[in-house]
Every structure is written in C-alpha cells, then in structure tokens.
Design brief:
Layout (H helix, E strand, L loop, with lengths): L2 E7 L5 H12 L4 E3 L7 E9 L13 E10 L1 E3 L8 E4 L6 H9 L3 E5 L8 E2 L2 E2 H6 L9 E13 L4 E9 L4 H12 L3 E11 L2 E2 L4 E2 H6 L2 H4 L12 E3 L2 H8 L4 E2 L11 E6 L2 E9 L2 E7 L1
Parallel strand pairs: 1-14, 3-12, 15-17
Antiparallel strand pairs: 1-3, 2-3, 4-11, 4-12, 5-6, 7-10, 8-9, 10-11, 12-13, 16-19, 17-18, 18-19
Length: 287
C-alpha cells in the first residue's frame, strides 16, 4: 500500500503512537508522519504509508494554522498545561489590551525554542534533558507569523486565539511571550492544528474512525500529498527514462510554471517528483 491518511490527532497521544497504530492497521512496515504535534495537541497530522514515506520531507509545509486556548496569570516550565507552575499573578485585562498585544507578534519574529521540545542536542531530545533538570542555551530562530487573532475572551483569564505561521513556529512560546508583554504571564492550555501540509482539519478523519473503517476508503494517493507542486506530463520514452533514475531535458518538456519541484505523470499515472537542476528535470522521488 502506498499513500497517506489525514488524521485528526487525538489529545493525549503522541504523533509516533498515532503512526504506530496506522502501521498495525495497514500492515505496512514503512509509515511516518509529517509535522510532529505535542501529545496535548490535536488536529491535522498527515501519515504517509509505504513508498509515500519518501515524500515526507518534500511536502510543502511552509504555512500552518492553529487555534489555541490561553490562560493568563500563570506560567509553567513547559509553557503549557502539563508543566509545573512557576508563577501566579493577578489578571486584570481587557479585550482591547489583548488585541493590541497580539499585533506585536505579527510579521517576522525571533523565538527561543522551549526546552520541552523535540529538538536535539548531540542526539538527545531537549525535553529529555529538561526532565533531568538540565537546561542548555538555545539559539534564537526567525519565524514568520502571518496573522494572530483574538477569537474570544471570557473577560477574566481565558482567551482563544488563531495563529497562522511558518514552519518551526512554537505557539507555546508565542503565548508565553504574550503573557510577559501583558505583565501577568500566560500558558497554553489547548492547541489544535487546523491547517498543515496544505490540508485542513475538515479533510481529516479521527484515528478511531480510520481504525474502524475500510482503510482503502481513507488512504489517499501519494501525489495528493504534493499537489501544491505543478504537474508535467511525459512521453513513453521519457517515463521509462525517468523511472530508471535518469534526468530529462527541460527543452523536451512542456513546462510553463516556475517551481523547483514538479509532479511527473505519464497519462494519469504518477511517476514521482522531479527537481529542476542545471536545465534538467532530475528524479527526486520515483514510484
């Protein structure tokens, strides 16, 4: 089986465990997910199956959208509801103050990744070091927040926000920074990825529904995972050449769009993904 499934990841489960459950259901040894979600997070999680796992690093994942619940007045060591409370301060905020603060986090910003993250230092995940009480220096990274909006505020200490951002953005860190800016602290209590890898939450199925269903109906063809890239159609001879790992001369292809990668087809058959290099279309991933 080669394809992928869009899962609405359940809360309290790691992305790895979701992938393992799909591996058992499909019987495929090769399964992998794109875009890790924390255990407390829910939402869009593409899981690639079979040879489609080759596409994980090629999926256009530069823009993501999240909905998050924010609790003001408290900070934790994990920046979310699973951590130990570090501070507890009174809250006296208005909707206008929150909206004004959010505007400062739009555009290109710098973040310091949290210690409780899956980033690695010398092969060891940071959260493993954090659990041992070890904290190391982390380099700032630039990310882009395309928009951050206040969806609701209960008038006391809880708000819901929507963030559209680039890959690599930590929503927990944004919320922690917002809390500091407002002078009362804040942590993330809920998180849902509503859009990622070019797919929306409406396109996803729950893990349980997938496990209970006929998998053939839920598994999508591999080329849909990379349909953000333009398509190019080849002849019989070109298809054989491409599938044998040989490059194709761009002058012999009808390419009208500007892109680094192209989906390659012979008729309706998806042959793989090609990459433009030195006036040629070279096989990047062949099926």
């Amino acid at each position: 089986m080669n394809g992928f499934v869009l899962i609405n990841k359940p809360c309290g489960m790691t992305s790895f465990k979701v992938t393992s459950a799909i591996k058992r259901k499909t019987g495929e040894k090769r399964c992998g997910h794109a875009g890790t979600l924390d255990p407390i997070a829910t939402g869009v999680l593409p899981v690639m199956i079979g040879r489609a796992t080759r596409l994980i690093d090629l999926i256009d994942d530069n823009k993501k959208a999240y909905k998050a619940e924010v609790v003001f007045g408290l900070t934790t060591d994990t920046l979310d509801c699973e951590g130990e409370v570090l501070s507890d301060q009174p809250v006296c905020l208005t909707k206008g103050q929150i909206e004004t603060a959010l505007k400062d986090f739009e555009g290109e910003i710098t973040q310091i990744p949290p210690m409780y993250s899956a980033l690695k230092k010398d092969g060891v995940k940071l959260y493993e070091l954090a659990r041992k009480g070890v904290e190391i220096e982390r380099k700032e990274r630039k990310v882009t927040v395309f928009s951050v909006k206040l969806l609701s505020f209960d008038g006391v200490d809880t708000a819901n926000i929507e963030v559209v951002c680039s890959k690599g953005t930590y929503i927990r860190t944004i919320i922690d920074d917002i809390g500091m800016k407002l002078g009362c602290g804040a942590f993330m209590s809920k998180l849902q990825r509503t859009c990622g890898s070019g797919f929306s939450i409406e396109q996803c199925v729950s893990l349980q529904d997938f496990l209970d269903s006929d998998i053939e109906k839920s598994v999508l063809p591999p080329d849909k995972a990379v349909e953000s890239y333009p398509a190019v159609f080849v002849t019989v001879k070109q298809s054989v050449r491409f599938q044998n790992g040989n490059e194709l001369d761009l002058k012999r292809l009808k390419i009208t769009e500007n892109s680094q990668y192209f989906r390659v087809y012979f008729g309706k058959k998806f042959l793989g993904l090609g990459e433009i290099k030195n006036s040629s279309l070279k096989p990047k991933c062949v099926f």
